[in-house]
Automatic annotation (TrEMBL):
GO molecular function, one term: hydrolase activity
Keyword Hydrolase: yes
PANTHER family per record: PROTEIN YJDM, PROTEIN YJDM-RELATED
Species in which this protein is naturally found: Andreprevotia lacus DSM 23236
Protein name: Phosphonoacetate hydrolase
Length: 113
């Protein structure tokens, strides 16, 4: 199954790549590949465990004890984290936790404070 987008003009599924463009062989419509990635980034929304949208600079609260990999430290339930930064990847929150330091968290284990 192809991962190429459908044609925005005629919705044909037979599109193909040609350099930096996608081309539809049915209607001859061409559009840049970069527009696809910009739309995907704009559509990317990070939500907490309750479904609230998270943004850069928000404060969050940890809702589950989290073991720190490679250490005997544990991030306890109720730990407040200020000034988060959203990043791409499986662990989509980058932050600093007092007493532990810089680490990345999954948004499914936090709620917006």
């Amino acid at each position: 199954m192809s991962t190429l987008p459908h044609c925005p003009q005629c919705q044909s599924s037979y599109t193909y790549e040609d350099g930096e463009h996608y081309i539809c062989p049915e209607c001859a419509h061409e559009w840049p590949r970069q527009a696809e990635t910009e739309q995907a980034e704009a559509a990317r929304v990070v939500r907490d465990a309750n479904g609230n949208v998270l943004n850069d600079g928000d404060s969050i609260t940890v809702i589950k004890d989290l073991k720190v990999k490679g250490s005997s430290l544990v991030v306890k339930v109720g730990t407040k984290v200020k000034n988060i930064r959203l990043v791409d990847g499986d662990h989509d929150i980058d932050c600093k936790i007092d007493g532990i330091g810089a680490m990345q968290l999954k948004s499914e284990f936090v709620r917006k404070a």
